Amino acid sequence: MPVKNRFAELLPEITAWRRDFHENPELLYEVHRTAGRVAELLREFGCDEVTTGVGRTGVVGVIKGRTNNSGRVIGLRADMDALPILEQTGAPHASKVPGKMHACGHDGHTAMLLGAAKYLAETRNFDGTAVVIFQPAEEGGGGGLAMVQDGLVDRWKIDEFYGMHNMPGLPVGSFAIKPGAMMAAADQFDITVTGKGGHAAKPHDCIDTTLTAAQIIVALQSVVSRNIDPLKNAVISVCVVSTDSTAHNVIPQVVTLKGTARSLDASVRDQLEEGITRVATHVAAAMGATAVVDYQRGYPVTMNDDQATEWAADVARGIAGDIKTDMEPMMGGEDFSYMLNERPGAYIWVGNGNTAMVHHPAYDFNDETIPAGASWYAGMVEARLPAA
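Structure (tokenized):
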């Protein structure tokens, strides 16, 4: 199953879709133009069913195979939303919307899945049903959860889910995958430290919240280094420090810390939540202050099913030859995890070549990746639903 010739033929058309999406980025659930264009194209392809407004602004297309003796349904997912970043690529197809850009390649994911949908609707060389899923709000909005809560699994009777993401640094058209934890649970926390504000020249009359916050930031690192099994993965990062005063000579009454906690299994996730809360409140108490911790659980671990990973790897291997199967998991988060929590499936990386990393203002999806990625999407349907 090499790169399908049809995708070489379709490459200019798929590239044009991709660059149109890139020029017109939309954030979170406000992907109205993108979703509208996706639905329009799916109808042009002759999909048997096109449903909009799933999970607020998601789009679902149904493509029936020539036969349906298996009665099985395979779901293929792509994300549609962009990021609030000012683009610095200088590309002819650069964003036309100041402060918004496709800095993660969701424009490419959407275009590749559209290409696969067109091919599958043309050929229908499979036994069962393919469901193509175009999701909003992956970048922090939980669009995957919204689509699941809107009945994605039961309404379309999906048996397995497969998703893909481009990866800068991997050769164009190559693939990487692993069983088990592929990406981390992504949680966030807010810590509000309250003391006694006052004049910076009289710290003895105050309870210094900035010093307390600094002690908390340092002490939080002990949660990972001294509470978590060193053979397991965890990250705590404090990323924002803000106070209720901007004066050089005022000890503020309140300091707020904001950060993220990442983990690859449920027990470690529980330890991080408990440890952050315990350390922050007790360090603050030792300094005479108080700390209130608001810990918010975000995307769960993206967990590849062992058997589905083998199937996904086999299809990728047929396209690219040898593939990377010993990669380490990444500590970023991905809300495709909500779909994998409902049904078995797998998530795979496709190489984007030597480009800027995702979420960087100079990043751009590599259009040379399209034939391999679209071939994998279509190949998963043909492999999991072999023609009768």
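The mean pLDDT is 97. The first strand starts at residue 49 and ends at 54.
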